[in-house]
Amino acid sequence: xxxxxxxxxxxxxxxxxxxxxxxxxxxxxxxxxxxxxxxxxxxxxxxxxxxxxxxxxxxxxxxxxxxxxxxxxxxxxxxxxxxxxxxxxxxxxxxxxxxxxxxxxxxxxxxxxxxxxxxxxxxxxxxxxxxxxxxxxxxxxxxxxxxxxxxxxxxxxxxxxxxxxxxxxxxxxxxxxxxxxxxxxxxxxxxxxxxxxxxxxxxxxxxxxxxxxxxxxxxxxxxxxxxxxxxxxxxxxxxxxxxxxxxxxxxxxxxxxxxxxxxxxxxxxxxxxxxxxxxxxxxxxxxxxxxxxxxxxxxxxxxxxxxxxxxxxxxxxxxxxxxxxxxxxxxxxxxxxxxxxxxxxxxxxxxxxxxxxxxxxxxxxxxxxxxxxxxxxxxxxxxxxxxxxxxxxxxxxxxxxxxxxxxxxxxxxxxxxxxxxxxxxxxxxxxxxxxxxxxxxxxxxxxxxxxxxxxxxxxxxxxxxxxxxxxxxxxxxxxxxxxxxxxxxxx
Length: 491
Hints:
The longest helix is centred in the C-terminal third of the chain and has 43 residues, at 429-471. The chain has helices at 35-60, 63-72, 77-102, 107-125, 136-149, 153-163, 166-186, 190-193, 211-229, 245-249, 262-298, 305-332, 338-357, 365-395, 401-417, 421-424, 429-471; strands at 7-8, 15-16, 199-201, 204-206. The strands form two sheets. A two-stranded antiparallel ribbon has the order 1-2. Strands 3-4 form a two-stranded antiparallel sheet. Helix 11 (262-298) packs parallel to helix 15. It is mainly α. The chain is built from 17 helices and four strands. It folds into two domains: 34-241, MFS general substrate transporter like domains (Growth Hormone, Chain: A, Up-down Bundle); 258-471, Up-down Bundle (Growth Hormone, Chain: A).
């Protein structure tokens, strides 16, 4: 069995390995873990993805109906932006807390706490209805609590990092990112399934606006049940599927903290945190304006069941197309560098926003659909998936809970600030120009950092060669040009 070093994070906390394979690992050490442990490893990975799916569904299931729910209670686009921001305020507060907790306590305990908070928030969501409390304040409270509970993304990422080697990490973090996408991009389609519901039960009114909240309650209960009955906290890297001996024994620069100067790693961490800020912020802007733009170009009645069905299906189809982006990452991940993937994603975001800037007063459904495709189905999936994977690989064997919390917090800050722009600015055109500027800056920053890394590697290689020349003897027998007469004595 490959021996992975344990990074003791706290004297009283659990040791967590983050996939830094020993440099001198030999092929004889590659013994498989018992089949039962490998199966449980996959079960744990599935449960981690279930937690993330449940958390992200808190955005997705209500995405097509939240603006309509808000409007039925007397809210407007400005309050919709505040609801999006409040969700992110809760996530910002909890992401660092949960990230800190998972470095010191078991992952399962953090999952249970976060899921319980989401459960309470989603139950409150049912009570904001016009026939119960008729309160925008209750709706806002619900979104804040659900956002707080959904701040476990850093925990899920750290858990995946603790269960995988660096060479496996892009694949499983991409799967996790795909689940995130499924949660917020495909689950809006569930809204169309309950659009015709209109019943009272135990004093609660279940209709086209509140029924999505009940779907989230079911997701939360399933997550809690799975964690209590199935999750095994003792599963680690050594229980997972094996890499080939050649791959696992190969030194990975990102897995070796000494291979790259600490300063370069820190600069890279700041770069990718900033990229996550931009990607998540742009995504949150479109979460806020998607449905209002759809209603604008289609002329649908926001109070009708047909509007709920059409908006839900529109988001669902965009989500289906987005799956192609994730499959592309998995299929072509070895043919492009992480930097190129992220640059491609931001260029797609830039193009989508540019389409919406052109003649905004004459926006057609076809142009809106294509712009949404570039942003929602191509740009956002690529940037959100690869930025996280590249960040984790950059950190290598370092403890990742707190740092993943920082990454998540940066995304939450952007999701707090940028959704308020549509409310603060009378038209959406300046908002799209801000998005375009952020995309251009991200592409340029990535190019600069990739050049910095290349230059650093060249300098390190030059230093190694210089040191070799200093310590080598004048007449090095390994080189035919370094021989002289003393090496060939006459007989």
